[in-house]
Amino acid sequence: MTSLSALSDLLGQLESQAVQRDLKYGDYHRPLFDQALFHCQSARLHPCVEEARQTFDKLTTQVKLAPNHAQVSYLSEKLICQIDALKKELDSFDVRQQEHRQRPSQQSDLSQLYQNLAQHQAWESQLKAIVTQSEQMYSQATGKEKGFSFQKLEATRRRLQRCQQAKLRIEKHITYKERNQ
């Protein structure tokens, strides 16, 4: 039960951070997380933390009443993924807000565009490696793990696709700038 109380404390910390971030920045321009991870599809963090809290409550109820190992395992993995996603979102939000404010029309400096392109190429390379790793995990998974592994694989593929689309936009912008200078 100690680990459950630690998870509860962690969720409390995440909730206070999410409330502060939501008050400071308001809604994001699209849902923050994939629907496979959070059903609420919110553009704010606090509803996602509340959903993670609901997953935690289901897990504690399942552990106390009738420990169905498959259900406990599934809820545990889902909760860990939700908490991990929330932590990453909170840790990287300021960086993404800064990137979001920089519109391509404001990025007149060609060297800045090339730096952005290099960064997106690095991210693309990392995401390709993660997709390959997720594909291997999916092929080795069995039973209920297979469904969860597939969800993670699809989410990673979507991230890779978004990264490639952003990289393509940057490349087009560089081409435009070079032709019109």
Structural Rg: 20 Å
Shape designation:
flat
Overall residue-averaged pLDDT value: 84
DSSP helix fraction:
over 70%
Total domain modules: 2
Structural class: mainly alpha
Low-confidence stretches: none
According to DSSP, the number of beta strands is: 0
Strand content: under 5%
Distance between the termini: 65 Å
Largest sheet: none
Please count the helical segments. 5
* SSE ordering: HHHHH
Concise account of the structure shown:
The chain has 181 residues and is mainly α.
Structure description:
The chain has 181 residues and is mostly helical. The chain folds into 2 domains: 4-102; 108-180. It is built from 5 helices and no strands.
Q: Tags for this entry?
A:
5 helices; 181 residues; flat; 2 domains; mainly alpha
What is this structure's SSE topology?
Blueprint: H1 2-25, H2 46-65, H3 69-101, H4 110-140, H5 144-179
Helix pairs in contact: 1-2, 1-3, 2-3, 4-5
